[in-house]
Amino acid sequence: MDWRAVLTDLRxxxxxxxxGRQVRGSLRWLEAEMLAQGANPAALxxxxxxxxxxxxxxxxxxxxxxxxxxEVGRPLPGAVTPAPPPALPEGLELLGRSKKRAYRQFLAxxxxxxxxxxxxxxxxxxxxxxxxxxxxxxLEAAGVAVRRLSLSGDAAPTLALGESRGGxxxxxxxAQADAARRAVPEAGVWLxxxxxxxxxxxxxxxxxxxxxxxxxxxxxxxxxxxxxxxVGVLLALESRRGLDSxxxxxxxxxxxxxxxxxxxxxxxxxxxxxxxxxxxRDTGRHLDRLTLLVSLRSGDxxxxxxxxxxxxxxxxxxxxxxHAADLGRxxxxxxxxxxxxALGQEPRRLPPHARALLRGSEDAGWSPSPVLQAAxxxxxxxxxxxxxxxxxxxxxxxxxxxxxxxxxxxxxxxxAMALLGDWAGLAAWVGTHPDDSRHLPPLWPLIRQSAGGTExxxxxxxxxxxxxxxxxxxxxxxxxxxFTLLESSRDPVRAWARVKLAESSLEGGAMDAARSQLQHPExxxxxxxxxxxxxxxxxxxxxxxxxxxxxxxxxxxxxxxTRAAGDPRTAVGGPRALLWxxxxxxxxxxxxxxxxxxxxxxxxxPLLSAxxxxxxxxxxxxxxxxxxxxxxxxxxxxxLLSAGAAAEERARVLARSATALRRLGRPLxxxxxxxxxLALVPDDPRRRLDAVPRARLLSEGLPILLALGRPDEALAQxxxxxxxxxxxxxRPAETAYRERRTRYRLALAYLTRxxxxxYLQPFGGPQADHPDLAQARTLLDGLIAQAPxxxxxxxxxxxxxxxxxxxxxPEPLRxxxxxxxxxxxxxxxxxxxxxxxxxxxxxxxxxxADAALLDINRAHALLRRVHSGPxxxxxxxxxxxxxxxxxxxxxxxxxxxxxxxxxxxTLSWLSGALGERELAPFRPGVWREAGLALERGxxxxxxxxxxxxxxxxxxxxxxxxxxxxxxxxxxPDH
Length: 974
Hints:
Blueprint: H1 3-13, H2 27-36, H3 44-50, H4 55-72, H5 97-111, E1 117-121, H6 128-141, E2 146-151, H7 169-183, E3 189-194, H8 215-224, E4 232-237, E5 250-252, H9 258-269, H10 273-283, H11 287-298, H12 303-308, H13 310-325, H14 336-343, H15 352-355, E6 358-361, E7 365-368, H16 370-375, H17 381-392, H18 403-419, H19 423-432, H20 444-450, H21 453-469, H22 476-486, H23 491-507, H24 511-518, H25 521-527, H26 535-554, H27 558-565, H28 575-587, H29 591-599, H30 606-623, H31 626-642, H32 647-663, H33 667-680, H34 692-707, H35 711-726, H36 732-755, H37 771-785, H38 792-807, H39 812-824, H40 829-845, H41 849-867, H42 885-898, H43 904-913, H44 923-937, H45 941-948, H46 959-970
Parallel strand pairs: 1-4, 1-5, 2-3, 3-4
Antiparallel strand pairs: 6-7
């Protein structure tokens, strides 16, 4: 039938399509109709253009075309196609006469009531499995009982063969015959597949005299001949070895020809000839693989088909083991290293029919298809065990794959060890690689249930240390692991667990509970113990001293904190002890010592080194080294991400780096960074107990909004932060501090709005009062009066409030008082430079220009000391040119205000001083302050402007605006 001509004729007589509707008679319409009838729509184009397709699909298309022909009143042209014969199973309909003959011959015998006996032979891929599957499907549909038996390789497990290895050959032969007899069905049809590599626990098949015989002959003698008279048998063999003397009919099956395989794929998959040719080449004309490939693309082949093919079986078994061991990944794709380790080969080297079970790529990762996942339950325990052993033996550094792949391989290796019950190996691994304990929490339920003795205690300690290191003291797994340790019969183990309970109380702000745990008799006796000490006692002593140091630090007793953290017994704490020493030295104002300790925390401890870099960045911000601070904070954020740190900790570091960006005059970047941080800690109404982390981020964002000139949004965000803090029931001391800090930032919002400028240096104090300035002073005065003092951070907050209070004061002499009080609090050059800059600003407003210049010059000298201060790398490229561009801009603006009487000379000097790239974000503010000073303090500002920039027509602008316009035109292109 000329399908194309028929379709063209019918389209010519169909009515014109209505707009917006699918065109009847179009290829897309025909595909939809075929799908509705249960036919394969992908076969349509091959039928129409090449007359290639299954009889069923052609019949469906003819039926659709007949309805169209009746609709337009035309006869369907072409010869009438006879009704299709009974459907052949997939894989036989287009492939090979021998397979069709065997199929029809055997089924005809069964349907005629006979018990046919038929032998088919053919090498792997000739179609034996497809033939057996088609026969079984047809018989089961007709209600015939079917028994299937597949014997490949070692048949002893399949036939439940008893122990016969090593006995007399006759005994072995009899055992094989008895096992075969037990497998024979009493009725129905028996479909048998036997491969040439058949053996029984290493012994060859034997005849009743004990002589070795080919597998094919054994199958005929032991299986086919032993079947009862009423049982039909279809026996599929790989070769005819040993069958020459038999009288049974044997049909030789041959693999499909290239043309047959191509037509089959084109019809079943709807692929063009070129793609079909490529698939035929890749599958090697192997019929089982061709049919499996088709079924994988169009349906579910079933676990039996997947496990019967060596390539798909290897993938099913490997992926089942990988899925079992990969407890922490969930539905994420498997990196190439994982699947490669499980398979023992590159996934991309799998043949197409096996690769069709996977989704993804080497770069994007591999995911199991639903068909592959459905086959996992059919994997034997032995095969899964072998896969787990292969994963457990995979060395993380054994191949040159990417670090990300290696990082993905490690937790799977540990998971495989746990599933294999290798508790000694798992305990030894985390003992020598403590940072890898982060992969243990998903394994804890299995550890808790199956591990025992010292190994369970070692692994429980690793789980506790992991969660404690992340500050996750409320996690159910750390509590369960702690109580496991408290059940130990060993005193040092219980003492160590109590120290960790003290850490938990400390983290939650329950200082009395923490001290009570430290004073427990079990802990006290362990801390007082002397050598020789076991590992648990040494660790308990070190951790107890560090908790004691933390308690003293929180209480402001830095002498006691330093003494506890410096105890030689804390040395066993390694990186953690170094981190605590750095923290305490930082609080005590020993800057160089703090930086040395923090920089000594090794990168081999990713989480602790990330925290050390964060503390270093925070310290450098305090010391005025904003550029170096930003580098340390960004490095800390990257390390936390790679170490799998908790979202709250990562968010805290991102927020602090946003502050560094703001200090460098990059508020837009800072706001983007803060939004990333807030996304990590979403507002969850269910977290009623601890809202501090998100409130802290919102509070940190207020100065960024103010730098962007958005004080109204800052006020709203500050109110939201306070609302969160007021609903928090945990960490009362921390909550109270964050509330004071947020209220201080609300005062900054009123100060910024009252001054009418963004919160970006330079700042000039007010010439007159404003309601927003009055509100800022009210808030600041209340906070200053209630300042608790004591701790280092409270002193820092009070210092900042004194500076802001001076800036909010319209009375210059009162502003001088607050600046003076701030100056008395300074502890290092950067703070003194800030305080002197603020005092210079107040002195300029009070008319003390000469005194102001003294403070300005001293501040410049102090800023140079910041450039060469603690921990600053040497050389001209230290990254600190200038160390704090915002403060330098403030000093330049103040100097311009103090010397504005010199007119154009001052403006020329200022233009040159502002040339450094880092000052670019602050230039508009400096020119604004210089212009205001020129407007207010010079008798002839326009003469100065004309002398500074002759030929520029700016007569209609005020001097501040004129200078900003001129500066924008002359700004260097960086």
